[in-house]
Amino acid sequence: MGEATGIGTARVSSTRVSSTSVSSTSVSSASVASAGVTPAGIATTSIGSSVSEDPTGRGAPAASRPAGVGAARRPVALLVATAAALIALDVITKHLAVAKLSGRNPVEVIPGVLDLELTRNSGAAFSIAGGSTVVLSLVALLVIGVVVFTARRLRSTGWAVVLGALLGGAIGNLIDRIFRAPGPLRGHVVDFVHLHHWPIFNVADSAIVCGGVLAVLLSLRGVGLDGSHHTDTPDGARRDGATPEHSERSEHSEQQAPRG
Question: What percent of the chain has pLDDT above 70?
């Protein structure tokens, strides 16, 4: 009986010693961790923490990435799409006009208002400045260069359409001046749309005029190439001259003021 009691006491004592050892080990691990040293027992946790920190930033969320790149590309893409569509439409309609209207009388579309009549224009839009084909070709090249240079600062959808229309119209007529008779930079532009009491024109001429009208409207509204409005107030200010901080303090004081 005494032996059994001794054995039980020994087991209880060993259990208490083991518990004390585990507690001291936990305290030691916590002390080492607070000192900045990673024990071998928690190496996996340390590795997981270092991976989740993502020091290279490759896993950065989309919200933390620069948003200006996408915003800058959208207006430029719209400019290119507008110009490409107008150029394609201008080339196709001119080809059809030459194929269907050569050597025949004007085709009446709307009596007394609109008909189709093929002409060759050595001047600018609506037959202005006839005989100045070379000069107009150089002007078209200059316009194309200015549009391409300006596109770097483009942030406005409206101005993207304007520049796309101007670029498409300039390139459309320049194609005629380069590839049609009588020679490069001296070729005559194909015109075929005839509104009564208005000079004969083509799709490229219409694009240039519409782009110019839209540019005037945007300028009158104060819209800049970067999408800003000239009538906008500076950031952090209101039309009454009060800053947001001043307004917040005023509202706070009004809420705290005793009511009669």
Answer: 57
Q: Six-digit token pair at 219?
A: 């300028």
Residue whose token pair is 């001047």 = 123
| Secondary structure (DSSP) of 151-208 | GGG---HHHHHHHHHHHHHHHHHHHHHHHSTT-TTTPPEEEEEEETTS--B-HHHHHH
- Which of the residues 90, 115, 205, 232 is marked catalytic? 205
What would the two tokens of residue 156 be?
A: 């406005």
- Pairing type for strands 189-195 and 114-121 reads antiparallel
Helix axes 157-179, 133-150, angle to 10 degrees: 150
pLDDT at 46 over 60: no
Segment 161-186, tens digit of pLDDT: 999 999 999 999 999 999 998 888 88
What is the spatial distance between Cα 243 and Cα 245, in angstroms, rounded to a whole number?
A: 5
| Residues facing residue 223 across a β-bridge | 229
CB-based burial, 154-164: b 16+ in 10 Å, e otherwise: bbbebbbbbbb
Q: Which of 191, 226, 232, 240 is catalytic?
A: 191
Q: Tens of pLDDT along 64-92?
A: 445 556 666 899 999 999 999 999 999 99
* Confidence band, pLDDT 50/70/90 cuts, at residue 207: very high
Amino acid identity of residue 159, one-letter, is W
Q: How many residues does the chain have?
A: 260
3-state secondary structure of 239: coil
Q: DSSP 3-state assignment of 222?
A: coil
Q: What is the pTM of this model?
A: 0.63
Is 191 annotated as catalytic?
Answer: yes
Q: What is the mean pLDDT of the chain?
A: 75
Query: Can you say whether residue 74 is alpha, beta or left, with left for phi > 0 and alpha for psi between -120 and 50 degrees?
Result: alpha
